[in-house]
Design a protein that fits this description.
The chain is α+β, with helices and mostly antiparallel strands and 397 residues long. Among the domains are: 102 residues, Efflux pump adaptor protein, beta barrel domain (Elongation Factor Tu (Ef-tu), domain 3, Beta Barrel); 63 residues, RNA polymerase II/Efflux pump adaptor protein, barrel-sandwich hybrid domain (OB fold (Dihydrolipoamide Acetyltransferase, E2P), Beta Barrel); 75 residues, Helix Hairpins (Orthogonal Bundle), CATH 1.10.287.470. It contains three helices and 23 strands. α2 runs antiparallel to α3. The longest helix has 36 residues.
Length: 397
């Protein structure tokens, strides 16, 4: 039994050894079929920008809702959607029969009050003179004065009622308050409108559609970097290939939301602030109420020396260098690497603005320096169908 056990152990050891040798041979063969390639970039001058994204709504700069202060029936409409109107132009008329009747009644009341007032005034003036001579009793004099004061009050009241009736009749003729374009019509001819607690809206008129504004909702985490005068670009789904330009005109501290606090709009625990952006619209492509996808450029630099951000993360660690490579490292919070044959050299650099893709270099290397950005293991051409793996090891340096 002992001999059999010893023999089994010898066989097992031999099998394991053979497997290990096979694995080493295969690994060695695969290693020989792999090579390392390096991607580079040239330090050059360009533009770097940091921006905040938001969504907003296209709106006219000046937009006026035209209504009526009296109740009645819409008799005639003289403007429709997209009508170009001038200030003072007649755009609608209401039925005037009832209003004219009210005016006639007010005039009659006024005339009667006026006649009564004139009579009582003359009677009072006579009573004053007679009372001074003792020819009229105190009671008769007081009655004359009372009738005079009451007629004066009725006269003034009827005068005010007449003025109101005249004004109401004037309200039946509706004119445009500004030069502009009708962008909305809310009534039809023959429709009855009632002026109660709110003025009924008949038309909405936009002053100048060649000048538009975008009202954007900017998240509270981004609003700190937004300031008036900053450049803005935005797109709309109606023209996906066009990019429109604008400027930040106003950052609104208040809000019109009914659920808001004093200084912000709160919706489901998300706080946003309204930012008003001016935009030229010479081709009238921007229509009111379009949704805009906005980039607000909070920081911008033009014509500065920069390298890809991944160049600052590259580091030639052991597996990414070929046998016999020389690594000349250096101290520095940020560094980039160059390669000359098998020699890798680190260069300390000073950095400035970064946008996540490119980073500004303010010192350390000159323009035109070729820096390493990435290393890749690639299979030899003798191994078709195999894809290489790329590596960018190490944290930003």
């Amino acid at each position: 039994m002992k001999k059999k056990t010893t023999r089994n152990i010898i066989v097992t050891v031999a099998v394991v050894a053979a497997a290990a040798v096979a694995v080493m041979l295969i690994a060695g063969k695969n290693k020989k079929l792999q090579a390392i390639t390096y991607e580079t970039a040239v330090a050059g001058k360009g533009d770097i920008a940091v921006y905040v994204t938001a969504t907003g709504t296209i709106e006219p700069v000046t937009e006026v809702e035209v209504g009526t202060q009296v109740s009645g029936i819409i008799d005639k409409l003289y403007a429709d959607y997209n009508s170009v109107v001038r200030e003072g132009q007649l755009i609608a008329e209401m039925d005037k029969v009832t209003l004219e009747s009210d005016l006639a009644s007010a005039k009659a009341t006024y005339q009667g009050s006026e006649a009564e007032y004139i009579y009582q005034k003359k009677n009072y003036e006579r009573s004053v003179k007679l009372h001074e001579k003792g020819l009229v009793s105190d009671t008769d004099f007081e009655l004359a004065e009372y009738n005079y004061r009451m007629s004066e009050s009725a006269y003034n009241s009827s005068k005010a009622a007449l003025a109101k009736a005249e004004r109401n009749l004037g309200y039946a003729t509706i004119t445009s308050p500004i030069d502009g374009v009708v962008i909305d019509r809310a009534v039809e001819e023959g429709q009855t409108v009632a002026a109660g607690f709110e003025t009924p809206r008949l038309f909405t008129i936009a002053a100048d559609l060649t000048k538009m504004q975008v009202v954007a909702d900017v998240d509270e985490a981004d609003i700190g970097g937004v300031a008036t005068g900053q450049r803005v670009t935005f797109t709309v789904d109606a023209f996906p290939d066009d990019t429109f330009e604008g400027r930040v005109e106003q950052i609104r501290l208040g809000s019109s939301s009914s659920t808001s606090s004093v200084t912000s709009t709160t919706t489901e625990s998300v706080v946003t602030y309204e930012v008003v952006i001016s935009a030229d619209n010479p081709d009238l492509k921007l229509k009111p109420r379009l949704t805009a996808n906005i980039n607000i450029y909070t920081k911008e630099k033009h014509g500065v020396l920069s390298v890809p951000a991944k160049a600052l993360r590259f580091s030639p660690i052991g597996p990414l260098t070929e046998k016999g490579s020389v690594i000349n490292d250096c101290k520095g919070a940020h560094k980039v690497w160059t390669r000359d044959g098998n020699t890798f050299t680190a260069h300390p650099v000073e950095i400035g603005l970064g946008d996540g893709i490119n980073t500004e270099i303010t010192g350390g290397i000159p323009e035109g320096t070729v820096v390493l950005t990435e290393a890749k293991f690639v299979n030899d051409k003798a191994m078709p169908g195999k894809k290489g793996a790329s590596f960018m090891p190490g944290p930003p340096r």
